[in-house]
Design brief:
heterodimer; A: 282 residues; alpha+beta; 3 domains; four-stranded antiparallel beta sheet; 11 helices; 12 strands; 32% helix; B: 157 residues; Ubiquitin-like (UB roll); DNA polymerase, domain 1; 2 domains; five-stranded mixed beta sheet
Chain lengths: 282, 157
Amino acid sequence: MKIIDFIKPKTIEKTCSLLDQLGSDAVVTAGGTAFQFHKKDTEKTAVDINSLDLDGIEVRDNEFCIGALTKISEMRSFSKSGWVLNEVAKKFSTQQIRNMSTLGGNIAQIFPWSDFPVALLVLDAEINTVNSKGSKTYSAVDFFKQQPTGILKNKTLITDICVSKVLKSSGFGYHKEVRTSGGFSTLTIAANIEIKNNTISEVRLAAGAALGLPKRLTAIENALKGQNVDSFLFDKIVPPLAQNIKWMAKEGASKEYAGNLAKTIIIDVLDEALKEATGEVK
Amino acid sequence: MKTITFNINGIKREFVLDSADEKLLDLLRRHGYKGAKWGCGDGSCGACTVIMNGKTVTSCITYAFLADGKDVWTIEGLGTLDSPHPIQEALVNEGAVQCGFCIPGIVLSAKAMLDENPTPDDDTIKEYLDGNLCRCTGYEKIYTALQKVVSKNVEEV
């Protein structure tokens, strides 16, 4: 992609009006780190949104709301009870890219390295957007059902993303399988488990990278809900269900390899989340 | 042609862009700031690292227009041959520099880290330097040099 001009609007209203006016000739620009992966032969006008007041992490009663322009490095260094996205941020690319990339940019289009959608799916995230016609909120499940570019259509901005806190009796697990520390993911798995009366009352499990788009693994979730934590083993329940998922081949990993990897990693991530939920590890 | 203005190594300067598509690395090198190197060209090796508003960025993929109004530091702004920056001095003393291609980026990554946290632990040092590849040294002497800078900072604290 070639940038042929740039404009730096100061307000959301002005930004939406510019996006309406420019249509497909515009590209919303924050960190700009993903542009090198766009088609080389397209020419765009960059609408630089860095002047908009859309960064920072707001702490609310039961959730955190993260401005779309919040850098991944800010998410890495943020620390509050119930905040788990620092673990995702830690495994995201390199320090320089963490300093440049924004959460909004990471979820506006799903690339193989879009780590955050997988975590957002298990944290019951809500994605708030705005365009010239008004604002709209999407659940993470609805937002990632298709390429988000289909929702944003070059006219809609992501303003902020709200995620549930992972509080007492809940646990979060996350794994990103990479060949080198800064590399793109071969398989990403996240889990969020809630325990009540020694039973799994809620479980959200999601996978990305080795699937076309990140998804909740609902068959496994349903099989785990209601299980007593003392009397079952993940390695009995997970493998047959994971085998039914259509894993995709990635660079350096066949679909058979991705499938076998998934069985192991899903169990590890669920174990991690369960140990945190039961208080065995914090 | 559009112009942008930013502070470069503490001095406010206006730059004429070659094009809207120009990357910060190209603009800097065109104006004589050649310490930042063209390495991988996709932001993964760190040879082009500069500091922008206190944070390291890979200038090979940073659009120059994004630097408008910012505060940019390159290796030219740190130390001199007669009076090297403490990070540069530590790297030399430890024999941590071989071909030197990656060193400007490593020095700037270390500076940004120490400005933010003067006493990082070993894991933090590795995390802040995870975007700087060195094909000569195997990193050990670089880490040792930085640990010595940190030890001095600890003594001062």
